[in-house]
Amino acid sequence: MKVTVVGAGNVGATCANVLASKDFLQEIILLDIKEGVAEGKALDIWESAPILHFGTRVRGVTNDYSQTANSDVVVITSGLPRKPGMSRDDLISTNAGIVKSVTENIMKYSPDAILVVVSNPLDVMTYCAYLTAKVDSRRVFGMAGVLDTARYKAFLAEEIGCSPKDIEALLLGGHGDTMVPLPRYTSVGGIPVTELVSADRLQAIIERTQKGGGEIVNLLGTSAWYAPGVAAAQMVEAICKDERRILPCCAWLTGQYGLKNIYLGVPVVLGRNGIEKIIELQLNEQEMQLVKASADHVREVMNVLDNMQLVKS
Ligand SMILES: NC(=O)C1=CN([C@@H]2O[C@H](COP(=O)(O)OP(=O)(O)OC[C@H]3O[C@@H](n4cnc5c(N)ncnc54)[C@H](O)[C@@H]3O)[C@@H](O)[C@H]2O)C=CC1
Ligand SMILES: O=C([O-])CC(=O)C(=O)O
After folding, report:
1. Would you say the CB of residue 74 lies under 6 angstroms from ligand 1?
2. Which of 58, 159, 297, 312 is most exposed, with minimal Cβ within 10 Å?
3. Which of 120, 211, 235, 298 to mutate to test the pocket of ligand 1 (most atoms within 8 A of CB)?
4. ipTM over cut 0.90
5. Residue 7, marked binder
């Protein structure tokens, strides 16, 4: 199988590197607009193949979309990351144009590809790719929930003093400070999390998760890439291997959770056709209110994109 990663910056290069080291793809194309960057990083990754023992051919190209032809999956990471003091939404004016033009170019050469969007503001950039690609929404979705859930699990593991491997958790909503970690759907080695962590500490962990991206931006001056890169790679693996994994993804809702015509994070079954199924949970009133508030925020930013009249809705 062939995967293209657009954007050879921090997230894109990490995603390509992780995918290559897993050795299940025939070819990875890394594409960037900056002359030489994708070629250099792809060559560096390829030179690690004899040490890591993988056979996936990794090639970099500068804006030459003909080389991406017939990709099975395309990961879109091109666009500006935020700096301290910015919100993800502040990136919309620059990144919408980038995501639109990248999607057009990709669709020209890989009309059957599945698109995994990573660029921020995530939910609205996924909407932008969907409007541009004009394909079934099951083939256009975004990466956020895998990352946000991983942060939530990592913080819980630290608090409990247990392995992060034993934590199962779920998180819904948009990829912003309104995201909704769900303690009622969180367990540790089969034990409900509320039996191991006090209500106060759990609330503090939920709030840290909601601001998890910003915590790293404040430390680094730019946004995270190791966990985001591996999160996107996990989604690509689930698709290419038709694993039918249940992962939280930013998906187009058509009435689920009482919401429609919106991209929002929900649990889905991810397989060879992309989103095979959206899973709808029986949320309680409080959980539903939080998801609705998150959806309201995403819709506001979707309206900003619509008003830019860049892509027709
Ligand atoms: N969904 C999520 O959970 C996450 C999303 N992000 C977002 O991912 C995006 C990338 O982040 P980083 O890799 O850290 O940024 P980066 O600045 O390291 O890399 C972005 C790359 O995109 C390239 N690029 C810009 N315009 C392009 C175009 N038209 N065609 C091809 N390439 C183009 C740039 O040359 C650069 O190499 C940002 O928008 C960031 O906010 C980052 C982390 C997590
Ligand atoms: O915080 C950011 O700007 C990047 C991102 O989406 C994340 O790391 O969650």
Report:
1. no
2. 312
3. 120
4. yes
5. yes
Please indicate if the annotation marks 120 as binding a ligand. yes
Residue 277 CB neighbours (<10 A): 15
Q: In tens digits, what is the pLDDT along the chain, a chain of 313 residues?
A: 999 999 999 999 999 999 999 999 999 999 999 999 999 999 999 999 999 999 999 999 999 999 999 999 999 999 999 999 999 999 999 999 999 999 999 999 999 999 999 999 999 999 999 999 999 999 999 999 999 999 999 999 999 999 999 999 999 999 999 999 999 999 999 999 999 999 999 999 999 999 999 999 999 999 999 999 999 999 999 999 999 999 999 999 999 999 999 999 999 999 999 999 999 999 999 999 999 999 999 999 999 999 999 998 7
32 is in an annotated binding site: yes
Exposed e or buried b per residue across 184-210, where buried means at least 16 C-beta atoms within 10 angstroms of its C-beta:
ebbbbeeeebeebbeeeebeebbebbb
pTM over 0.90: yes
Ligand nearest to the CA of 119: 1
Classify domain 2-142 by CATH number: 3.40.50.720
Considering every ligand atom, which ligand is closest to the CA of 10?
1
All structural domains of the chain with their residue ranges: 2-142
- Mapping DSSP to helix (H, G, I), strand (E, B) and coil, where does residue 270 land? strand
> Which atom of ligand 1 approaches the CA of 37 most closely?
37
Find out whether the beta carbon of 179 lies less than 6 Å from any atom of ligand 2: no
